[in-house]
Amino acid sequence: MKNYLPLNLDHLEIYVIVDNYIDDSLLWSPGVKRYTLGKNGKLPINSFLAEHALSLLITAVYGSKTYQLVLDAACTKEVLPHNIKFAEIDLSKVETVVISHGHEDHMGALPELLKLTHKNTKVYAHPASFHTPRYYRTDSGELLLEPAFEKKWITIANARLIETPDPLLICENTFLITGEIPRKTEFENALPGSLMESNGKLIPDIITDDQAIICIIKDKGLVIISGCAHAGIINTIDYARKLTGIESVYAVIGGFHLGGEPFQQAIQPTIDALKSINPQFIVPMHCTGIEAKEMIRNQFPNQSAVSGVGSTFQLPINL
Description:
By secondary structure, the chain is of the alpha/beta class.
């Protein structure tokens, strides 16, 4: 397989625009900055908002150059623009948006996001993320229609859609999009109850559109940033290693999708695999679930950090 090698970055910063949680009491630590409560000597009457969704602003520094992209666009039209305004973030120069997959909690507020980014923004997505209809069958048997990811959102915004199922280096080789991720492990499975219509029949939806972003920190190793990791966070890490030819994993950040009853059996095998991989920095977000986050925190006390809206994670970590 061809090696896809992103640039060896000097610095990487990941700012949490939207995640499942807000906590103004989260502690600062090496590599982790928290939202500073209060502006101009006053406590705000306003606050960040949280929802079951994810959106990250990623900033990479290579020499004298800086590159930015937004990974995922959260869910509702209220939360993402509110948080951007509250944090006083200027996205007008951001020209790249990557959608990790076509579920509503990762693309729902894309129209609002594109109003705030550069007028010539490129939107990268797997072609299968636009498949419709998709459904979710609940434990009670109810069939729920998934909101559709619509291409017209991108054309209306005069943005440019780039569809590919394959690995792709973007932003002058700063970031690598994995494209479709092979499923290898026995314990990582797609979302049970997820269905899609094909040729008039409902079939299991294994969420082939799931993809992640890979970076390299100079002299440290790989940084894997996932949206939901429906392909499995260990499968994602293994594929990142295969794509780049680099074994050393410095950081794993994003949704690990270990929340909810169907995924409880995968928590400990995932942690065991992470112990073998030995990342220096682990930040579980979004769909990882409370139980898995607590177990990761307990078993990686010096290598993990808690996420929350308004948090900034800076790599490499200067101890």
